[in-house]
Every structure is written in structure tokens, then in C-alpha cells.
Amino acid sequence: MNRVADNRDYTSGTDNNDFDSALGDLMSIRLLAIATLFVVCAPADAQTVVVKNVHGYALQANRVEPFAAMLIREGKVDRLLSSEVAVPSIAGASVIDGRGQTVLPGLLDAHGHVLELGQQRLQVDLRGSATLQQALDRVRKFAADHKSNRWILGRGWNQVLWPGKQFPNAAQLDAIVADRPALLSRVDGHAIWVNSAALKLAGITSTTPDPSGGQILRDASGKPTGVLVDSASTLVERHLPPSTDVDIKLALHTALTELANLGLSGVHDAGIDSRSYRMYQELGREQQLPIRVYAMLADSPEAREVIKAGPKPPQFEDRLEMRAVKAWADGALGSRGAALLEDYSDRVGHRGTMLYTPAELQLLAKLAGKYGWQLNVHAIGDAGNRRTLDAFERGYTAEQRRLLRPRIEHAQVIALNDIPRFAKLDVLASIQPTHATSDMNMAEDRIGRERIKGAYAWRKLKDAGVRLAGGSDFPVEFANPFLGLYAAVTRKDREGQPPGGWYPSEKLTREEALRLFTSDAAYAAHDEARVGSLQPGQWADFILLDSDYFDIPEDQIDDLKVIATYVAGKQVSGKGK
Ligand SMILES: [Zn+2]
């Protein structure tokens, strides 16, 4: 995985983002045999399935199409039946009685980080621990449950939340884990807490000098306490064993299984290396891809060779495809890395950082165009967005733009006169509705009241004819797609703030929001003929919900629960799988 790239992408606002990336790369837990953990996902067969007694919603080009029953053949939608039509009885068909529940197309997350989510799930999670003791209790339980891990890794502690606000120390951790090294990252990723075994392995003693850009916290006698700040962390981190293929496969599968349980039938993995792609292929061969993966290859020197070999066509019954390249034009707003055309409102003289020169970005677009790749560029600041639009304008031909559907990932802060350029240049905006509601206060501090008019400006983009796609950017945000639907429709955070919604003129309708996470996301992956709207001929990827998305009060959208997720007509989550 591309650590630099992930660092850039993971700092999109909230304070603990650096941390996600740092640990993602460090992860390499030695794992139990994985075969027994995997769920078998059989390929589609000739079986006919009848889904009946549902409040179903399919998507036509310009409207929502209700249905009461659906016939599925060989994993694909054969017919949708309205409530007026009798459900035929088909010999040998298996029947799913929806008991009046709601059916929607399977949701798609157009921007997430699968490996990083899986890696987080394989570490001890210390976020929200209210006392040192609570954090230690979680470590104790995790260590007991993961006896074969050579290292105990974790993340998310924050001593500021603990009584006394004291940094923890190695001795406290030694009392829980003494037999192997333990490394626990602080919530912001800027410090690690380690045990004595880790200090010993790294050879850190009283005489070890602080490295430049870092600090080894010490007691009154000069002895290291077990907390290493910033670059001092690498003294321990460099001793972590590298991830094995088995580690990566387990992390990918763990994440995909979680996503399936959340109602996602597909995900666009926003920046992977070729090794992760190979692991996806292995999972595919083993029939262990519960949901569909549209992979973006992270730009790197190594990736340039893969680009020249051409895109990877769909495999495993359309469960894996890699025809997009991911690049990072700038940083994030929270850390003031997003590139702005004018100074930050809260830091005079600072405009963030472009990570490619205009010429480099244009060259990358040209390369992608030449070899038939979609190029998806992370751009958060208005300068990042403008330079990326410029690169698409000059690097791709008009025909390539039309065919290859270039995307700007995030498209968070856009100069108002650049908004129509997205439509004119056939550039899609891949947005994350929850970023708006997580970032809203911070964003306005960073860019002020004028520029905020072009920030998270979904309605302005739509009105300008720009095609959108919706995602979450998990694990920076929660992967639960209903939080994204809720944020898109209400522009409120989960506490319901602000009461009328943040810049409510930018709200989307429920149908528009649903399309972001279904048919629009499918379009952004060239997949609209195969998935996303439950039209006949498409894969029967759908979810059963506990309430009617179109009928409940909008403040309850974030509480919707998925009862089951189906991919190609087969249940991949929930009870009775
Ligand atoms: Zn991302």
C-alpha cells in the first residue's frame, strides 16, 4: 500500500485521520488460520428466485419504480412485478417472503479504503476509552483473544479524556502484555504508547537521543516512559514485521464482510497497490468476494508499469474490476494541506500544498487516457480542484473524457466559476456527504464565509449538470451508508445539528441521495448496465430494510437497519445466510 498517498487522503478533516493511515501501514498481525473464518459465496447458478411481498423500489432513468415482487434468474433480475400482478408460481424456484419489508438496490460506496478498514478491525480499538483502566481492560481482552499475534497493535487512546490527563506508561502496559511487544497509537497518530518488550526490541534506553522531529518521553531519571512522539515512533515501528499475503487477504475479507452487513453490495476501493489487487484476485478465485469491488490503482512509480499494461477487466461474475487510477492532488482541510487559491482564512500567508505540479498531473492524465484508464484525483481545496480540472482538460482528449469518466474525489471546496467546468469537461464529482456534517465548523474556519458557498455544494453541482457519486471515505468516516444518505438529505450531524441543516439550500432529495449510493455510483464505475437500479438484466444486488426509506421521517434515515444484503440473488449478510 502507498503510505504517502494514504496519509494525504486520510487527513480530510477530523483530527484522527493521520492516525488511520499511520497504523494502516504498520499493521501486520500474525493471524490465525483464516479459512475457517471465511463465508462461502457460491456463484450464481441456474436457480430461479422469487422475492415477494415487498415494498420494493427500483430506479428508472427519471423516477423511482415501486414493485411488490421480483423474479431472479441466474443471479440477475428477470422481472419486476407491481402489486397488481399475481406472483407466478415457478416449479423449483426458491421463494424469499419479504413480509412487507422494504427492498432497495444494493448500496454502493464510491470511495472507501477496504484494507485500512479491515486492518483496523484486527487491532484493539481504544477510541472513546474514558479512563486508563478502561483502555487497559480492552488491551487485556484483545491480547487474550489474539494469543497468536506476535504484536499487539491498537489505536485511538487519548489521555486528555482520562482523569488526571496523564500520559500512560510502559509499566502499566507490561502488567497486561509482557510476553510480546505492544504498540498503541494515540487518536491523532502523533504518538505511540509501547510496552517494555517493544522498547527493548527497538533498543531504546536512557542513552538513546531524541531523533529530529520527535521526542522520547522520559521520567525524572531520564528513563524512557513508553510514549514516543512523532518521528520517535519510527524507532519502534520499523521493527514491525511486514504484512504477509495472508494478513492482507484476511483484512480485505474482514472489511468486505462488514460492508455487506451494512447493506453495501459494492465498494470503490480508493487507492490500492498491485499486491492488494492480487489478493483480491485470490479471494475471487476462492469465491470469497462477498460484494463487488471496483478498485482504483494508487499512483506510484510501480503503478506506472501496471498502467501501461492496461486496465483489468471484470472477473468473477463482475465482482472485481480495476480500470481506475487514483492520484492525490492536494491534502486535506483539517490539517490545512488542501491547496487553496487564496490564503487560509485562519492562517495568513498559507495556501496548502499541491502534491503534483500542473505538468505532472497533466502527464498522468495523458498516460491514463492513452492506456484507457479512468483517472480519479483526490482534490479538496479550490486550487486542487482547479488544477485537476485543468489536467483533465489538457491531458485527456474530449473523447477520452466522455468515455473514461474522470472523477474528482471529494471535490470539497470549488471556486464557483469552476463548478460548470465539471459538466463541460465530463468530470464526475465523487462526494462524501458525511464529510460535510463532520467538517462543517472546521471548514468555515478554514475558508471563511465567501468560499464556503462553493464547498460541499451538492445542489450547485447538480444544478450545473454535474454527475455525482456518493461514498463515505471509510475508515475516516463510518462505512454505514445510511449515515451518508441522512447527511445528504438533512445536512445535519447525528445530533440533529444545526436544526435546519447546514447551508440547507445544498440538500439533496431522498431520491437523489439514494442515486448517489446506487445508480450514480454505478455510473462512476462504468457499471450502470450491470448494477445499481434493479432493472431487468442487472445483477440482483439488493437489500431488505426494516423500514421504508421513502416513508420514515428524514431524521430517522440514519437509524435504518439492514436485515439482509443480497448479491447476485444470494444472501451475503444477515440472519440465515
Ligand atoms: Zn479516501
**Strand content bin:** 15-25%
User: How helical, in percent, are the residues?
Assistant: 25-40%
Mean residue pLDDT:
91
What structural class should be given to the helix and strand makeup? alpha/beta
Evaluate the radius of gyration: 24 Å
Distance between the termini: 32 Å
Number of strands: 25
For the sheet with most strands, the description reads: 9 strands, mixed
User: Low-confidence parts, pLDDT < 50 over ≥5 residues?
Assistant: 1-45
User: What would you call the quaternary organization?
Assistant: single chain
Question: Explain this structure to me?
Answer:
With 577 residues, this protein is an alpha/beta fold. It is built from 19 helices and 25 strands. Strands 8, 15, 16, 17, 18, 19, 20, 21 and 22 form a nine-stranded mixed β-sheet that branches. Zinc ion binds next to loops. Residues 9, 111, 113, 270, 473 line the site of zinc ion.
